[in-house]
Amino acid sequence: MAYMGYRERKQMKKVLNKFSIFLGVIAVYCISKYYFTSQALKKEKEHVKKIDGLLKVANLIIMSDSVNQPIYKKLEEKGISTVAIYGMGDIGERIMENILLNSSIKILYGIDKRGRDIKAAIPVYCLEEVLKMEKPEIVILTAYTDSNILQREIENKMLCQVITIGELLDE
Predict the structure, then answer these.
(1) pTM for the structure as a whole
(2) How far apart (Å, rounded) are the C-alpha atoms in residues 90 and 37?
(3) Measuring CA to CA, how many Å separate 139 from each of 2, 4, 87, 97?
(4) Distance between CA atoms of 68 and 81, rounded to whole angstroms?
(5) Which of 36, 78, 144, 171 is the most buried (most CB within 10 A)?
(6) How far apart are CA 57 and CA 49, in angstroms?
(7) How far apart are CA 119 and CA 133, in angstroms?
């Protein structure tokens, strides 16, 4: 190996420093790209799981109607006369229509995180607003969730029974 003078060593250090910075930038880019891609995939998996759950519920609704066991009949068999619906998206609207059009069960109100922004045939409020209102015998939880945390929260705040749409349809 040839002897390197002071200038050559200094030049070599500059090249190595620039190369180290370049490698660092590439490493940071790769790590951040991996992180953001994995976060996006995680969100996508959660979204697919939610859609799958909603499709299963929609299928159960169709099946219950086809075997002449619609939701309103199941509620009437339990002796329920007042309900509230938590989650006023598409499933919540179908449940509301099913009860309003076919039974004498009174829907006191809908509950949704978007509250009064939702236009429906029944009044819709945020959870905090209904805590001071008349309590239903049962709250039907139509919002999709893969845990029972939301169900327990509603039960604890409203002090009434909460049943998920899946539980109601599976009975």
Answers:
(1) 0.70
(2) 31
(3) 84, 82, 10, 16
(4) 20
(5) 144
(6) 12
(7) 20
